[in-house]
Design a protein that fits this description.
34% strand; 2 domains; 7-stranded mixed β-sheet; alpha/beta; Alpha-Beta Plaits; 4-stranded antiparallel β-sheet; Rossmann fold; 8 helices
């Protein structure tokens, strides 16, 4: 049976009510901030602008398309929103297995990232990372991951880290790379998604680095298990969450410690930099890869 995505673009001020009205209609519903849309008049709790538009995706079977689309349009009408819902067929397949098998081999020296379903050809001095990303972000191929790994390797040449935080760990690829390069580090990996937490657990086992590696489900630092004192933090998330977390990064990153921040476009870099400068950090280094920025902040 074919699967379909019904896609709707919804203003920020209506997205919560729109999503709630459709939660029990489709098989699943996903909401994404449109980072390219103009900022709305609303601000988050730290005073940063929230995007004016969000994308709402509904997943359904082919027999449910007409019903789900009609419900989306009816909900929009009740909210006073002019909505044109688009429909896109997606392949009905074993997504988990397909993701594993299609996952490309990625090389960011000295790391070779591949799935457990493939065997990498490793040269002397290279370090293999078996990462089954599948249902969690982080196969290693995105430019933000490349940027984070390159910046980390440069830092690791000068510093032996002790306590590492991976905020928004996804598949765990960044902190697992850290653990493989510096095995004595203690890692706390954090993600908002329970599936990412499960996937990271599995990947630490695949890479024999589960010792002193704690994985926590948390929205930012809300879970007390995240309240450590870290000398390095990976934060490959998005520009707005990065800015919202800046004050808490100041609280939990040791003086002289580092935050490797990524997940932001070049055009968003100055906003993120200003947020961290205001919270006691300086820019140590940065890199841009195909329009995506990765930045090392050092806490002063």
């Amino acid at each position: 049976m074919a699967k379909y995505l019904i896609r709707c673009t919804v203003p920020y001020n209506l997205v919560e009510n729109f999503q709630k009205a459709l939660e029990n209609i489709a098989q699943s519903i996903m909401v994404f901030e449109d980072v390219d849309s103009p900022p709305s008049d609303a601000m988050d709790e730290n005073g940063f602008p929230i995007a004016s538009l969000f994308q709402v995706d509904m997943l359904c079977d082919d027999t449910e398309v007409a019903f789900c689309k009609a419900q989306a349009e009816a909900t929009a009408a009740l909210l006073g929103l002019e909505l044109e819902a688009t429909t896109e067929e997606v392949e009905d397949t074993n997504w988990l297995l397909a993701c594993h098998q299609d996952q490309p081999e990625v090389r960011v020296h000295p790391f070779v990232i591949h799935s457990s379903y493939s065997k990498a050809v490793v040269k002397p001095g290279e370090i293999t990372l078996k990462i089954d990303a599948a249902t969690a972000f982080g196969s290693g191929e995105h430019p933000t991951t490349h940027g984070c790994l390159k910046l980390f390797v440069a830092l690791a040449k000068k510093h032996q880290f002790k306590s590492v935080l991976d905020m928004g760990c996804g598949s765990g690829v960044l902190s697992i790379a850290c653990k493989k390069l510096q095995p004595t580090v203690t890692v706390t990996a954090v993600d908002i998604e329970a599936e990412a937490v499960r996937r990271t657990h599995l990947n630490t086992t695949l890479n024999a680095c589960a010792h002193n590696y704690n994985v926590v489900c948390s929205v930012g630092f809300q879970n007390p298990q995240t309240h450590g004192h870290y000398d390095l933090c990976f934060a490959n998330i998005l520009a707005n969450p990065l800015m919202r977390l800046a004050p808490e990064m100041n609280r939990f990153i040791k003086p002289g410690g580092y935050v490797i921040a990524s997940g932001l476009l070049d055009k968003q870099a100055q906003l993120v930099i200003r947020a961290y400068l205001a919270c006691g950090f300086v820019v140590d280094s940065k890199i841009s890869i195909t329009g995506w920025q990765s930045i090392v902040f050092r806490r002063i």
